[in-house]
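Thread: "does anyone have the structure for this chain?"

Original post by V.I.:
We have the sequence but no experimental structure in hand. Need at least a predicted one for the grant figures.
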Amino acid sequence: MIVLIAPETDIHNEILILNQLFEAGLEYYHLRKPEKNYQEHCTYLNQIDVKYHNRIVVHYFHELINTYNLKGIHFQEQKRRDHIDNPGQYFKGLNMYGKTISSSFHEPDDLANCEFEFDYHLLSPVFSSISKKGYEGRGFDVNHIDKRIIGMGGVTTDNLNEFNALGFKGVGVLGGIWNNNKPLEVLKKMKNHFEQ
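Reply from O.Q.:
Generated one for you, tokens below.
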């Protein structure tokens, strides 16, 4: 499983590249644009081919799920702490039928002890980040945790076997694709790895 995270600030030809990545088989795209307001999120989504909207997971403005046919919603760590203890209230106004719910974690113990059943969990940093300088990897081994955990941090086409060995069910990638001058080739290599 490959989860592609949006670059925090827009990059040149981002939507064009994104549509190509979807066409090449990208199934999980996490729209994480902390600087964009609600209207800017809509403008961004409107530029993406509508047939790919069901592969997009939003980090902000979860109510977008009521307007667009999105894949799901994602809770960053603080938002999870603020809302998931009383999830019934939070989801009341959201049309979540058939949608995914995921969350970010930075400590394996928090993930293991979380009682809410997320569809999948992003854990970082496994290896030192490509996109965030000084974000040192911690080499988490999650083989003992019986949950669907996606490893993030320093993902490249060269270390996918290490993620497998550490017990991850897939990778969350940002810099490994967006900072590469051949993003399409990188995605295809990663897809091949997980389809074997």
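V.I.: this helps a lot. The first helix runs from residue 14 to 23.
O.Q.: and Strands lie at 2-5, 28-31, 56-58, 72-75, 100-105, 120-123, 149-152, 170-173.
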